[in-house]
Amino acid sequence: MTIYDTKPGIIQKCQICNSKNIYEILDLGHSGLCDSLLTEKGINNPEKSYPLKLLKCKKCHLLQLNYVVDNKEVFHLDYPYKSGITKTLKDLLHSTSKYCIDNFKFSKKPLVIDIGSNDGTLLEGFKKNGFKVLGVEPTNIAKLANKKGIKTIQKYFDKNTANFIKKKFNKAEVITGTNIFAHINKLDTLMKGVKNLLNTKNGIFVTESHYAVNILNEMQFDSIYHEHLRFYLLKPLILLLKKYGFKVIDAVKIPNYAGSIRVTATLNNKMTQKKSVQNILKEEKKNGFYNYKIYDQYSKKVKKIKNDLNKMLWKLKFKKKKIVGVGCPGRSITLLAYCNITNQLIDYVAEQSSSLKLNMFTPTTHIKIIDEKNMIKKQPDYALILSWHYGKSVIKNLKKKGYKGKFIIPLPTPKIVN
Are 106 and 253 within one domain? Predict the structure, then answer.
């Protein structure tokens, strides 16, 4: 089995096992890129959109998109996402360092490298615990990380970058890849680079990816967007890592992004594999994730949610109610586009004052993103929680700030709450 870097365009074969036996589970239509927001001028110009379908490989059971957009277009210089924007997300990202420290032994001043390090929030947890840290981030968010003392190289992670790091910083005892492990289309380049940089004696490679089980069980179709090329079960992850000489020694389900899987692998075959690995594999098989029925049911349920949510919003609109969106994570773009929620249905999307997305417009649906302070002043009747996966904390914070209206939770079942 040979793993290739996937070129931009239609996917013809599985990204891990190269099987052509892949089939469509869900068609979410066409959508713009979730973090390529539009200016006021841009919404009147021709706009790019791309097909968005979810496929499944019958051989290795990898879930994957049907279309690859060039990474340089997806992760452009002005990429507006900051991982440290909320305390909730900061705490979740800092849990990675705690997990590593609690479960593994390292030298006195070990090096940790985070690929796709964004604003350096994850590395902050390691730095506080005496690790040397190095981020690799291609967008201008790297500048923010460097300003707050997290050393970050502003480059794409490729062969040249890996060789430069090895020469200047030596090998790492920890390499992390949170979400980026599902983002990068050059999977062969990524894995060879990690293998080149990881200490073979006690080094660990820690990946955190949105877990396919949560996406299916909790109807998280909004997490399917062009950044996320692959949605892993543990079984295909083990197959992928084994191809490059890695042994999976631990697998843990974590709450990040409404359900992720943290997988730890090593190049040292003598390290003991924890029982959690086999336990999760058994769960996946027992619960039908290697069969077809669950995927057919998923598609039908998603279509029903689309219709139910759209009807709910239009019913409120006909009653002259003011509806706004709250939060603009990447996943919101899929939800808005697929469910036909445009600027005719909701007046605007409210974001935190520190967001880089303010005064921009959502692709495809053209809804303006404004400071949530204006929402508190205007007191709309209903707030559609687009960051529903953090729903409880979002509602609590908005109430604390003075919002008195009602909330709409779109998933996994559309509902209105006080």
Answer: yes
The token duo for 397 is: 């914070």
Total domains in the chain come to 2
| Three-state secondary-structure class, residue 334 | helix
CB 403 within 8 A of CB 376: yes
Place of tokens 């959508």: 31
Q: Give me the helices (H) in 201-248, please.
A: 212-217, 234-243
Any idea what the Cα angle at residue 178 is, between residues 87 and 369, rounded to 5°?
50
pLDDT the model gives residue 1:
60
Is the domain of 180 the same as that of 145?
yes
* pLDDT score at 129: 95
For residue 283, what are the CA distances in angstroms to 212, 277, 317?
13, 10, 44
pLDDT digits (tens, 9 = 90+) for 347-364: 999 999 989 899 999 999
Same domain, 285 and 345: no
Range of the domain at 85: 1-291
* Measured CA distances, 305 to 83, 221, 364, 369, 411 (Å): 29, 10, 20, 24, 8
One domain for residues 68 and 98: yes
Q: How many CB atoms lie within 10 A of CB 162?
A: 21
Mean of the pLDDT values across residues 76-96?
83
